[in-house]
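Structure tokens please, single chain.
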Amino acid sequence: MKHFVTILISCCLLNATALYSKEKTPVTLSKTEQDSALTLTNELPSEQQPKIEEPKMRIWTVSEVTGNIRKAKPDTNFINFNQTATDECFDIATSWLGNMGSPLETKIYFNKGKKSDFLFVRPYINYMQVAEDVKFYNTKTPYSSLSYYRGGPSYGREERLKASFAVNATPNLSFGFNADYIYGRGMYIAQSTNDILSNFWMGYQGKKYIGYAVTGLNHFKNYENGGIKNDSVVRYPELQPTRIKAENMEVNIGADKNAQSQLQNHYILYTQKFRTGKNEINPDDSTEIFVPIINFIHSIKYEHDLKKYSEDDTTAFYINRFDREILLCDTMTRDKAGYHSIKNTVGVELTEDFNKKGRFGLIGYVTHEFSKYQYFAGKTFHKTGGNAVIVGGMITKNNGQHFNYGAAGDMFVYGARQGEFNLSGNISTSINAKNKTIELAARALLKSTTPNRFIQQYESNYFAWNNTHFANEKKVHIDGRFSIPQWNLSLKGGFDNITKYIFFNTLSVPEQYDKNIQVAYVSLRKDFKVWLLHLENEIIYQKSSHEDALPLPELSLYHNLYLTTKIFKVLTFQIGGEVHYHTAYNTPSYNPALGLFYNSGEKAGNYPIMNVYANVHLKRVRFFVMYYHMNYKFSNNNYFSMPNYPINPGMLKMGLQWNFYD
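Here you go.
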């Protein structure tokens, strides 16, 4: 069935191509669409730009609901290329299991943006390319890229292989794929990861018809050890007869249990627009361009998710730590949970060109969703779900020279989530003063969210709850940004007020907090340059009013000191060191049987992670050498991402990327 749907979508797109293949010349895009054009360049000062054979190409991502495009950047910048080989690349402070490709979440509250209706996807979503993250290309020359990463000793080696390809079959029709394979043996017992992330996309941009199709597969298979059994082995090695190496540390769930987690995510998205408008003469080059006025929108998305957790023999780890008294099966564990969804959206868009002065654009849409949630508890199958109808709309102004704004909202008007809504608004402006550009932006959000179905009701071998009485979680959010690009200065701040906040408590079961929680943050980014020497700095301060429900590190820091220059006119290199740090706080920990993070009530942090590295760029090739966690042997021994989960000891890492443009 999945293959059939994929073939059907591809055929629809190719048929649409055939309908409009009479257009002999490439389509000239409207101003809004031109904003997505991006030339492959590196983000270095002009005098340090490597002279690379790179063609011009447009790169963009697509909104699932409206089909609107947003400009995107290629992954070709050689500066800080080494960061892509660490899980700290997702944010300046993260919780993770230590091994590449293992479950992860950011410790910065305001960066927890990605979510999914399938609860168990969330610890992996940072690795995944969800449909709205997939990059579409339009290029005159075929583009492909190969990357290979490797690090650590042979017994705990981590490896990663990535490949991307994009080509245009016609000036308007392009297609390509992305593949990412992660394999980490793990420095600690029973910790290996085996992840496959892939997607295939097609895009057609015609004069009166636009269509985008993407299908993706994300598969994670990880062994689980529950963390090391005794944290003092790491914290106080002087109390041990001899220093115990990572591969010999006793873990909570031994390799004999064969504990494994699997997560599968499949999706297919097809979004299309039928456009009506007028032809105008471009005053710049006297060519005729098509200006869309009214767009008719349709999108369909199918998603299927499956989570498995298995053990060949049950363990006392969950019973002792999480107070679970009765097991559904006391010989082995075979937990499953799944999610299916089909969404159909139809809408109408009035572009910013529909009125003479181009003051704003309007979009209105209706979405029908059929969803199914299911889980297996022992030999019992539980299923729930149904139909839902969402009504939404937005008003936007994106073409203003100095002032832009937008407002959007949607509401569930039918189904189990009836009454759930999401309202947001944003405003931005730029001011030129003394040859400097001052950028100002502000955003506000008001939302009411129904508790996830798996939070309302769930049962597995070790855990069970019924929270159908939980109320909607409500949030009021405001934030603002001030930046001066010429000074490499950016200042951001925000505030949240959360009512009926839902979290996983120390027993790994959902709990709803009755009091209001306020969260405030300030983020400062300032980079300095003296001759060839650069210093990147990011400082984030955040404060939660109720640390027992929503704990956060108050201060998180990132500093990167490096020297970069070009030699022999073709070889550009960067050599330096970086450090991640956050203050100690009651961090989350990870529950393998659930595959979710929970409030541990135990402290971690107050430890710097230092890396030294060298990045080199030569024509179409970039590579790096890095010693990760170089302070492993001379800092204090508090190198825990979260309780029971120390990060990897110091190790050598290296990586290579080769881009092809023909």
